[in-house]
Amino acid sequence: MANPHISVHNLNVFYRDHHALKDLTVELPERQITAIIGPSGCGKTTFLKSLNRLVELVEGTKISGKVLVRGLDIYHSDVDVTEIRKRIGLLSQRPHPLPMSIYDNVAFGPRLHGLKGRQELDRTVEDHLRAAGLWDEVKDRLHAPASRLSAGQQQRLCLARGLAVEPEVLLGDEPTSALDPMSAQHIERRLLDLKENYTIVIVTHILRQARRLADYVIFLYLGELVEHGPAADFFNHPQEARTRAYIRGEF
Amino acid sequence: MLTRSLKDRLASRLMFLVTFSSSLIVFLIALALYARARPILTAKPLGELIFSSSWHPLKGEFGFYPFILGTLWVTALAMIISIPLSLLTAIYLAEYASARVRGVVKPLIDLLAGIPSVVYGLWGVLAVVPLIRDYVAPLMGRSLGFIPLFSAENLTGYSVLAGSIVLALMVFPIIISVAEEVFRSVPDGLREASLALGATRWQMVKHVVIRKALPGVVAAIVLGFSRAFGETMAVLMVVGNVAMIPSSIFDPAYPLTALIANNYGEMMSIPLYDSALLGAGLFLLLMVLCFNIMARIILRRVLREEW
Ligand SMILES: Nc1ncnc2c1ncn2[C@@H]1O[C@H](COP(=O)(O)OP(=O)(O)OP(=O)(O)O)[C@@H](O)[C@H]1O
Ligand SMILES: [Mg+2]
Fold first, then answer.
1. Domains of chain A, earliest start first
2. B29-79, pLDDT tens digit by residue?
3. Could you tell me whether strands A33-37 and A216-221 are parallel, antiparallel, or unpaired per DSSP bridges?
4. Measured in angstroms, how far is the CA atom of residue A172 from the centroid of ligand 2?
5. Contact criterion met (CB < 8 Å) for B192 and A100
6. CATH number of B68-256
7. Cβ separation of A145 and B187 shorter than 8 Å?
8. Would B250 disulfide with which of B61, B152, B218, B305, CB 3.0-4.6 Å?
9. In 3-state terms, chain A is what percent helix, strand and coil (to 5)?
10. How far apart are the two ends of chain A, measured CA to CA in Å?
11. What stretches of B208-272 show up as alpha helix (H) in DSSP?
């Protein structure tokens, strides 16, 4: 396997009594696309959120195990959690435009991290809106409320907003779920471009999307890591009966 | 037998009537006040009533100015005290406190809302007034006394500040509980979205939660102060009731509500006295009305910014 960017050791997550992730150990390769698949409720979102410590916001969660990002244990008590989240961006399952303009949404992250000059901000906003494929649609109304965008546009806005922080890892929770086939294809192409510079982890329910995009696949079932491996091996020679059943669409 | 559509129509008529008559009461009260206040409104020019500060009913002089200012001072200072404190409390409860802390604190705060205002007034007399008399006024008078607003010439403790503190306490639970609901109604997804970009909790609250919650927060403040304006008993007990124009927060004041409550039913043989007190009621009603209209304009402006 290529260099691991993130390695997860014996990760357990509990929501109060509910054991949502059971002893996961896996490595995510650098500058590749990893797809996480599995039936609804199996812990995909929980897994993504435990990679940038968003999961700890839920009251009553208990987390054990280690998540190392380039060797840094992100759950160590000395670690600045905002720094972790800046390095590991997350696009949530549903798009949530912040209550401000389109421009301010994209500029939000850079401003938090100290970017000030008008021109630099303008350039950053334009660059990342272009990267998300939204620029042409919104360039004439950058200062309109972001909530007026359509759901698909909002999803791309969130992509632009996440990219503008310039993270090293991009986590996407079903990043194309609100999109029509055309825009979905557009995002898929973006993700393939972005893989040059970013380590990407996406959750998807669409097996064909996983086949198209993924270099590496992780299959979760009821909180357990059933199987993981390079995409070609995973899809062509699945080892586990449950994986074969899932790939055949029997869940 | 009544047909269903007839019943339906009767029901809607009835509900209309009930709704209509309750809104009619506002007009009836205003009308009654106006009718009884007419003698003084015709006997004295309006400008004199509002802007004259000499209140000598026996000499036939009825200047409301000190009382109007008394109401404004006490209410404004109560706002200045209570808005920041209650919003910070609401933010803490909604954004920072654990479920356990919230479960203990919220019912206690709601309990504050149920305490009768006389009790607040008594507590003001027993605790707030002495505190101001013995500590706050002397200390601030010595250190900041050169600023007229803080000069401490009144040594009794019965003051604008005492009235405002008591009033602020009464408004707290209303603003806190409404604002807390409003903050909690902000979707968690927005919080996660801003934290995922590397915001600290406070940056998230400041840039996202407050912004999203702003219309509701304004509504919470308005709700709190619609009550504060007319609150009589508690304020009356601690504010000193001296018909003077306050110039320092340690001066006594005499709000309109206290004027009416203290004097109505006494010395009614003095000509125009009863009419003047009802006139005071009318002014109070108009002030509350102005406040509500202003609040509505602000609210509408805030709501128009649909982010
Ligand atoms: N905040 C929470 N509190 C308690 N239980 C939760 C919470 N969030 C998720 N769970 C539970 O944890 C399990 C995993 O949830 P998760 O959201 O990770 O699933 P998922 O694989 O992303 O599902 P989907 O494909 O439907 O998005 C589920 O059983 C869910 O009910
Ligand atoms: Mg999910």
1. 4-247 (3.40.50.300)
2. 999 999 999 999 999 898 898 999 889 988 888 999 999 999 999 999 999
3. parallel
4. 10
5. no
6. 1.10.3720.10
7. no
8. B152
9. 40, 25, 35
10. 29
11. 210-230, 233-238, 256-263
